[in-house]
Design a protein that fits this description.
Number of strands: 16
Structural class: alpha+beta
Distance between the termini: 25 Å
Radius of gyration: 26 Å
Strand order of the largest sheet: 3-2-1-8-9-10
Largest sheet: 6 strands, antiparallel
Helix content: 40-55%
Strand content: 15-25%
Shape: globular
């Protein structure tokens, strides 16, 4: 199953909605209606703020508060009142404003669905599923909290993902919506598969060495076809299969053996120079209303100063990169026991941040610390937000997981169709040895029954 579905995933990834498309479907903020200062909006939100931005909701400016309990609260920017959850009729009107094509149906609200089951959607639940009357069978998922279009699927993606990612990740909604249960289930299944594969490789090599030691010029002493093919295929593909099972098991590590690639909330606040709530409260209304027209305005903080970024579907509007001196002071405050050895812009072809599964934004700043792990801190050059934390173990993880699992080696991954050919041959070999092992196992069970 893992090898067959891996072939599908090479060409049909799990559905997602690019951020540029999300922004393109948002209204431009009408600053003339923005009457409430950020500090007043904060009074309606719980403490422990982790994110703060301004958008348009139902044709009205609104502030979105993201808090450490993974919740989202929306406060209207014209009267300071909390915004209620959106109804299907409100979303339907918005859909007609965004799209010229007709609407087929709206379902929900729903907390979970196969295509919004991931953790990143948690702060925006529940959702409404909007089915469009188009040839592609497009479905959009709209948050009833913020009114944003946050996921998009087509019929083609849904069909192939049931044969790809859903099976490969063991991702059925009933299991995946309980993250802890899903995490343990896949981790233990992968570990059992790893032990089984390792024992098979050992036994296969042992049998071959034994028969060769007896003076016979053959790789396998088995006469029965399925056993012989399984043995020979395993000799040539066993290490490859083992590396894929091992790296797949590591994908579920989540801090068990390796560090996690994120800064703690304390480190983030030290980097900001104070809590985000305190810094956001300093932003006056005029700093927002004087901005260029935008679909979204986000307030960040670094070294005690607020940073306001406005963007539309084309990206940031008039972006300015942060100074290295300010970044250095902030990092020293967040990691006071270490020195900053170097600060530099990460090159576009960096092997640790430019991966097949995703890349850090262009212009990302890398700070190298002088601790025993030679930790790298990656920060966004415009907002100052921590994008990832990579110690030595995390860099090893990059090769053990990304390298082994998707053959993400710079000299191979960037050269297609060479990567496709190598990947497909390996997956087919793994699939073949798995099929022979499955047949042998089933025949043994039937005989014993």
């Amino acid at each position: 199953m893992w090898f067959a579905t891996g072939m599908v995933m090479m060409y049909v990834p799990y559905p997602s909605l690019p951020d540029s498309d999300r922004l393109a479907m948002m209204e431009t903020i009408d600053y003339t209606k923005l009457n409430v200062a950020p500090a007043a909006a904060l009074s309606k939100c719980p403490p422990m703020l982790t994110g703060f931005r301004a958008i348009t909701l139902t044709n009205r400016p609104a502030y979105v508060c993201h808090t450490s309990d993974n919740a989202t609260h929306v406060v209207y920017g014209d009267n300071g009142q909390l915004a209620p959850h959106l109804t299907a009729s409100v979303v339907e009107r918005r859909v007609h404003e965004v799209f010229s094509k007709p609407l087929k149906s709206i379902e929900g609200p729903m907390d979970y669905d196969q295509w919004i089951v991931a953790n990143k959607f948690d702060p925006y639940r529940p959702f409404l599923q909007v089915a469009m009357a188009d040839d592609a069978g497009t479905h959009y998922y709209v948050s009833t909290i913020t009114g944003e279009f946050l996921q998009r699927t087509t019929r083609h993606e849904r069909v192939w993902n049931y044969l790809g990612a859903v099976l490969h990740w063991i991702y059925p909604t009933v299991l995946r919506k309980d993250h802890a249960l899903w995490d343990k289930t896949v981790w233990w299944l992968s570990l059992v598969a790893l032990v089984g594969t390792a024992s098979g490789v050992y036994l296969g090599l042992y049998r071959t060495l034994k028969v060769r030691a007896s003076g016979r010029r053959t790789l396998s002493s088995f006469k029965e076809n399925w056993m012989r093919w399984h043995h020979i295929l395993g000799l040539f593909t066993g290490i490859l299969v083992l590396s894929w099972i091992f790296s797949g098991w590591l994908s579920m590590d989540h801090g068990r053996l390796f560090s996690t690639p994120s800064a703690t909330l304390t480190q983030q606040n030290l980097l900001r120079g104070s809590s985000l709530s305190e810094i956001v409260s300093r932003v006056d209304l005029g700093s927002l209303t004087s901005l260029h027209p935008a679909s979204e305005v986000t307030i960040h903080a670094l070294d005690g100063e607020y940073v306001i970024l406005a963007q539309d579907h084309n990206g940031l509007i008039n972006p300015e990169t942060l100074g290295f001196a300010q970044i250095r002071r902030a990092i020293i405050a967040a990691w006071p026991e270490q020195k900053v050895v170097s600060l530099k812009v990460v090159p576009d072809d960096d092997a640790y941040t430019n991966l097949r599964e995703g890349q850090l934004p262009a212009g990302t700043i890398r700070a190298v610390l002088d601790d025993s792990n030679s930790t790298w801190i990656h920060l966004d050059a415009f907002s100052g937000e921590v994008l990832s934390v990579m110690d030595r173990g995390r860099r090893v993880y990059r090769w053990l997981f990304n390298g082994l699992h998707s053959l993400d080696f710079p000299w191979l991954a960037k050269h297609r169709p060479v990567w496709d050919i190598v990947m497909f041959i390996g997956l087919f070999a793994g699939f073949s040895v798995s099929v022979t092992g499955t047949v042998i196992g089933l025949r043994r069970l039937l005989r014993s029954g």
